[in-house]
Amino acid sequence: MKIKSGRFKIFILAAAVGTGLFGAFVNAQTNPTNEQVIQIVAKKFNYAPNVIMLKKDRPVVLEFTTLDVVMGFNVPDLKIRTDIIPGKVSRVHLVPDKAGTFPFVCDIFCGSGHEDMSGKIIVT
């Protein structure tokens, strides 16, 4: 199909640019801080991943699910604590403001291997 009209070409170009700008606007409205999302799965008796790498001053959302029982996620040094409940997604928003290695543990007794349920967050 050959397009002869100059006005029609301008209309098509304007529609394409407008669609791109609208898409960028909608994307900016749904994730205004451009947070990094990290999914963490808990199950007896570990977290996957059990080492979480973060960048200092970059916003992040930790999303938790569990495959079996109620768990806890506690990082005392970063003042982070949440319950992880079967069938639900728990979210923690944070902006790490200091570099270092911060251990985390399950703080809800989840069975005989509970004491092995730990990991670390490394902020660089």
Automatic annotation (TrEMBL):
Single GO term (MF): copper ion binding
Residue ranges of domain Cytochrome oxidase subunit II copper A binding in the record: 33-124
SUPFAM superfamilies: Cupredoxins (SSF49503)
Keyword terms: Copper, Metal-binding, Signal
Alphabetical list of InterPro entries matching this protein: CcO_II-like_C, Cupredoxin, EfeO_Cupredoxin, NosZ/Cyto_c_oxidase_sub2
Leader sequence segment: 1-28
Annotated Gene Ontology cellular component terms: cell envelope; membrane
Subcellular location: Cell envelope
Transmembrane segments: none
Protein name: Cytochrome c oxidase subunit 2
The organism of origin for this protein: Sulfurirhabdus autotrophica
